[in-house]
Each structure stands twice: as structure tokens, then as C-alpha cells.
Write a structure and sequence with these properties.
Elements: E1 17-19, H1 39-57, H2 61-67, H3 70-75, H4 78-88, E2 97-106, E3 121-130, E4 133-143, E5 149-158
Antiparallel strand pairs: 1-2, 2-3, 3-4, 4-5
Helix pairs in contact: 1-2, 2-4
Length: about 160
Amino acid sequence: MRLFSLGALASFALSAFFVPSCATLHAQGAMPGMGQGGGQEKGAALSAMGPWLAELDAASYAQAWKDAGRTLQQKAPAEDWVRTMRATRTPFGPCQRRELLSAFGQPVPPGPGSGSQGGYFVIAQFDSFFPGKHAVENVVFEKQPDGSYKAAGYTIQPKG
């Protein structure tokens, strides 16, 4: 099931990271699989993902769109984003647990036709658990000119 992403969303490498609460992202010890270099960038992006994913978890889709970066906003008008999220994310219900499978930084937009001028992206893949459902969430955050990170893409796919 496809939602919005930067072009064709990149493949994801696997590692492990546990997020005890769907509303909070934080490391318990080291973050395996984060790769060499860029650890601070990835950490900053993962920290920014927590509150944004909490908006999705609360079905606050219009607010999540407002809090997203220009890349996502240019790819999907607010009305389209909300409509698509209601059709694809809402059926999963409230998130019970989210585990980070991978996170890596990429200094160019992931995939062709992204419409971005370039920049630094952090791409994360989560193993997410909902009442009676299991899914994989792919989240892309882009570094903004002010140094902050904002959502640039999101997909969710049922697992198993």
C-alpha cells in the first residue's frame, strides 16, 4: 500500500532499535546499524520523527502535513494528504509499539523524480504494531535550511 514518498522510496537496510512508546523515539543504549558517520544527523532526524509520528498516531493528519517539510507539501496538497492518510493509516488504529529496523543518511534525494534540489535525508524503517495488525512504516526526513529535520515522505505497508 503506497502513501507519499520522495519518488521511488529507497531500499532499506535492517538493524534493530526499540521504541517503547509510539509517541516517543529514543535509544536504549547504542543504535545498531546506524552506520559510520552522520550519527548526530541521524539522531537529530530520529528525534524529530517522534512528535511527527505521534501526530499520525493521533490521526492529526492535517497538523502532520503542516509540520512536514516543503518537499512533502509540494508532492501532496493538504487535502490529498489527509484523504490518503484516512484511507491508508486510519484502518491500522492506534500504534502500540514501534521498533526501528534501520536508519541511514543519504546526501541526495532517494529515488528519481523527487522534485527536490538535493540535501540531506534520513530514511528510517519501522516495524510497527497495532491492535491485531503489524505493519512496516517507511519515514523520510529532510534536513531544513535552519538545521532542523522535517517529514519528506511516509509509507505504510501491512506485514505478514
